[in-house]
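Subgroup meeting minutes
Present: P.N., E.W., G.H.
Scribe: E.W.

1. P.N. recapped why we're keeping a running log of single-chain structure predictions: easier to compare across weeks, and new members can see raw inputs and outputs side by side.
2. G.H. added today's entry (779 aa).
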Amino acid sequence: MKSVSACLSFFIILPVLGQDINDMEKINVYGQTPLSSTVVSDHSAFGSVQTIDAQALVQSQAISLAEHMKNQLTSLHINDVQNNPFQPDVQYRGFTASPLLGLPQGISVYLNGVRFNEPFGDTVNWDLIPLAALDTVSLYSGSNPAFGQNTLGGALALQTKNGFSYTQNELEARFGSFGQQQYTVQSGGNKSNWGYYFVANKYQEDGWRDHSASELQQMLATLTYASERRTIDFIVSANNNEMLGNGAVPEKLAGLAGRSAIYTQPDKTDTSFQQFIVKADNVINDQMSWQANVYYRQNEINSLNGDDSDYEECESGSLYSLCEEGEDDSLERVHFVGYDEDTWLSELSDIDADDIDGTLNTGFTDNESYGAALQWVGLSHFDTSESFYAVDNEFIFGLGVDQAQISFNSDTQFGILNNETVDDDRSVTGIGLYDSESRVSLKVKTQQQYLYFLNAMTFGGNFTLNLAGRYNYADVSMKDQIETGKGSLNGEHVFHRFNPAISVNYKLNQEYTVKLSYSESSRTPSPAELSCADEEDPCKLPNAFVADPPLEQVVAKTTEASLHYDNTNFSALATVFSTLSYQDIIFQQAGEKSNEGYFINLDKTQRQGLELAFSTQVGDVDFSASYNYLKATFESPFVSFSPVNPLGPNRQVNPGDEIPGQPQNQFKFHINWMFNDQINVGTEFLYASSSYYRGDEANDNKKIPGYAVTNIYLNYQINERLRLSAKVDNLFDRHFDTFGTYGEADEVLGELYPDTEFDEYFVGPSRPRAISVSINYQF
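Output recorded in log:
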């Protein structure tokens, strides 16, 4: 890690950099709980926070929230596993928030105070967030226990607009490369104590990869009652989205057929989402207030994945069927859903078993959840003649419950891979027969109950002591709808833990503040992980689960030290941090496909690093920049099984080996220039260093190379009603990869490209240069 002297040197030169600077965007550090809609206190935080407002989102013209955060937030990185802008793996300080099952989810996400992680796998479906509706975005660092489950590395709190924060009517149309079309309408206003806000958004694109079209339909509406002491919001939102993201491609195929080529298809995800929230903020008097919410949430997720087949032809006399490799390497005949075990393929279909070289894996998840939360805030002041220091105290106490009912079903249908020539689309056509062994039907009930408190005591206005704690109780009940008894998915799992936190802030003078903090948080194994934890019976994500041995809950312990500089001319932050995770859950590969395996606990992993960031304004130019160094490592030895690893399947992982997919160095800067009252132009720059391929936990093979990318944008306010905007992403059309894994491409591609020997490297290629223009009309 970088030395503390480097941090101090950074701050010594800061005042020189900002002369005659006014009204700049500052890097704030403050505390908040999920229920707080506004800043509760400048002194109740554990770690730092980065904020984005609605104006910044408009200026950047990002397609999605993840895209904006990737370009402008410190320590945040994206792996484009699916190559769909609405299905990224978001990485922050080495922890993940992703829509994909199988990844350890270490970031909690809240929308209007309600937990947004899905109850089944703790996943985050970024497509459900309408970007135009967001009023503020806050990214909190560290293991703050106030944010509850999954806050191992950080928490993301999103607040949407209402009729008092947004009082306009807008129509916007956007058109861009790769068939991009977007139409947005939003309206907000208020009269007396009542306000309303409404947004509807439709987005569609052909996708820059082959066969990768997507269409999103999003809606959110808010009715608000606001008086001097009370605010009540009634929020309803709904989505109906269809996304194709055909994932990683063999590195050599990208060179032969172009970076838009795909391996197999389809890889489709459909989401149907609805949510109802009522939240209230009530001020009792100058010293007391309370906040509360109740919610109902339902998200139906359908997945369809076309892939090549691991099944082989087997026969007995004139009968033939499909077989798969058993435990002792012998072939075991498959059983077809709806037919006797003795039924052969030749008795059901005229298709030759040798022609069945594909599979269609389908999954359906119905996440239905509801809950309520309440918090009380009390302020007090002590200042007597005997007191050496005046003391200000803030105390927060909260409690809540989240419950979910989940239905999960999956099947594997046998199919034919359309792969005769290089011009074929490599799609899979099902034949109507399903594998009985892969079939899953599971009902899950979860309940989370929690209590938390935060206390901030400030002495003399300069020294603040913060204390916090949260007690979590989780009950996960699973009932197999197919099997009973031994070997079924039935199970009852209970987890509970108290997570503490402490921090001290000392204000050296009007400009410098030092902060030290220690915090703990945890996450319980998700139902998806609990159902896929048997080494003897691996599963295929997201399509199959097995009887499970228990997994331990994950506990993260973060130590953080920061130095803040803040005046009217300049704002900056330097931070060093270390997070130790105990019993981290990882997906251990068990078959030749990267989604086949099981979950295990690791004794210890670590993420440690350095962050430097500043923000300033010089005349009409806003400028911000950040650098982060991250060392994400395994700290306990284990044997990683990666069957298609170029160096062999069993790789010894030692303490200090880096966690794949995490660049050690990132540098970002953002410039926004107000050319005049009507025109502003901006530039976003991002550099990320190299990282290891997923599957190379032992750090034995080559890395994914580092990359740099530049975006530019322009906004032209023609008059008070009409605005034209344009953006160019990846201005210099750089070709790079953000993600890598291992796979076996020879069986699918070997005959099509006989002169090419395909290796095991698969990559997630970057999107090429993309241009978009939009027109916005306000009335």
